[in-house]
Amino acid sequence: MASWRTDDTDGSGPHDLRGRRAIVTGAGRGIGAAVARALVDRGAVVCVVDRSASELETWRNAPVVQVAEDLSADRSARRVVAAAQRELGGVDVLVHAAAVLKRTPFFEVDYEDWELHIRTNLRSTFFLAQECARVMRDQGTGGRIVALASDAWWTGGHDGSLAYAASKGGVVTLVRGIARELAPLRITVNAIVPGLVDTEMLRGQLSPDALARQTAAIPWQRPAQPSEIARVVGFVVSDAAEYMTGAVFNVSGGLLMY
Ligand SMILES: NC(=O)c1ccc[n+]([C@@H]2O[C@H](COP(=O)([O-])OP(=O)(O)OC[C@H]3O[C@@H](n4cnc5c(N)ncnc54)[C@H](O)[C@@H]3O)[C@@H](O)[C@H]2O)c1
Which CATH architecture has domain 21-250? Predict the structure, then answer.
């Protein structure tokens, strides 16, 4: 049977990114790593960001700029974007995939849980977008900003992920507001909403029973592979998606339907 998949990774199709300068956070593993690979495959020059050099081990000897930075720290966004601007000569694309999910039962959630999720997942989204937008504004050539949200933004989360879910709800709210701010500068701002994706974040803290229960709720009957999310990001940052901004792309195998 013919496949419907059109894998536009030779860099020559409508999703060509040659000449684009991209920052991808959380690029050490999982979805961020797959996104960075997809962007490199399409011809972009990429700055990969993760919390430490050891997290970026997979990129050793690869033709990318590596920046180790804890994105929950004050002014980390400024340092990341300054490094990318210096090393790449500018910034055209930001894909913010770095995030944490620490599952905690409702009655045990404490102030540290809130700090962790809000600083890492939500506050970083604002300041990375702000810093990248400054550079894009000065370049005068538009840009693309993509934030990874989660199905939890819509459901409120399952299995002890309430603070995470709230941070991702905030990410969607930010994407919508920033999209309106930056549209006159021809910078698109969009959210990608995966359902379940086969990464350490999914498998790390869920019991086999909870994983089976969550998987059973997916009409497509399996979690996504990171590359399946990366392909959608590749489209959203391409010229083909020029007129799409403030959108919340549901890529969940039917787990969510909106
Ligand atoms: N895996 C899923 O099922 C799923 C579902 C919905 C949404 N998402 C979202 O997709 C994105 C990627 O998730 P993933 O599954 O690849 O997760 P992951 O845990 O496998 O990878 C996350 C990466 O972010 C990095 N990171 C975490 N905190 C950081 C910090 N403070 N500073 C710098 N880097 C940091 C980690 O080191 C890691 O490399 C996240 O935003 C996540 O919320 C994932």
Answer: 3-Layer(aba) Sandwich (3.40)
